[in-house]
Write a structure and sequence with these properties.
The protein is of the alpha+beta class. It contains 6 helices and 8 strands. Helix 3 crosses helix 4.
Length: 236
């Protein structure tokens, strides 16, 4: 009886050892596969972190470049506030108060623009007006006297502005928004007069309309297809 019990115990021990060996042989590849998957996940996570860091650095560099460009533009253009008015908008709940700013910008070298915008605060209204003026820049054809090539009348709405060239040393003889536009455009000698409304915004835009219509002798000769000397009556 004892021999039978010992034999059965030996058989059970052998079976359990076989099962343990089989299970260990199965678990070993699974553990290797799990470790490989975890390693790949760690590599992917580290790559994603590096990509995020690179994106943050790129965005910071791009923002720095934009700030530098904005500073250069601010240094290039001068700004003058022509008018600030408090305006209201009637809505269902009552009246909404805001501020409207009219700003003229220019580089005093032949480029000028007029902008108008509204906002809840004066500073924000001025910033929006400057951005609007940068989107509406106009080139001024200046001659050797830093004046206009010819006389012109600019009209915008009820405003009419008379612009006339002047000789060297005359200066800018104009007032209001017309004077601001001419000075920031780089005009040193000119006559300007406001005819009609006294609205600064309309007068500034009328001045720009007159500047847009100006042409130099070179431009007119190219449009007509004749030489400049013949256009000026200097040909024999």
């Amino acid at each position: 009886m004892s021999l039978a019990v010992c034999h059965s115990q030996c058989l059970a021990t052998a079976a359990s050892s076989q099962r343990a060996a089989a299970s260990s042989s199965i678990r070993a590849p699974i553990r290797c596969f799990t470790a490989a998957v975890r390693g790949q996940q760690l590599v992917q996570q580290r790559a994603a972190v590096r990509a995020q860091r690179a994106a943050v650095v790129a965005r910071a560099a791009f923002a720095a470049e934009e700030d530098v460009e904005e500073e250069e533009e601010e240094e290039q253009f001068q700004e003058r506030v022509v008018q600030i008015r408090r305006v209201t908008k009637v809505v269902k709940g009552g009246k909404q108060l805001s501020f409207r700013a009219v700003v003229v910008i220019g580089d005093e070298a032949g480029t000028v623009g007029v902008g108008c915008a509204s906002a809840g605060e004066v500073i924000q209204a001025v910033k929006k007006a400057v951005a609007d003026a940068k989107r509406n820049l106009v080139s001024v054809p200046l001659n050797k006297n830093n004046s206009f090539p010819h006389r012109i009348d600019g009209i915008f709405g009820a405003a009419k502005v008379m612009l006339r060239p002047a000789a060297e040393g005359t200066g800018v003889i104009a007032g209001g928004a017309v004077r601001v536009v001419l000075e920031l455009a780089g005009v040193k000698n000119a006559f300007g007069k406001q005819l009609g409304t006294a609205n600064p915004l309309n007068n500034a835009r009328a001045t720009l309309e007159g500047i847009k219509q100006m042409r130099t002798f070179q431009q007119v000769s190219e449009e007509r297809g004749i030489p400049v000397s013949e256009l000026m009556g200097l040909s024999a």
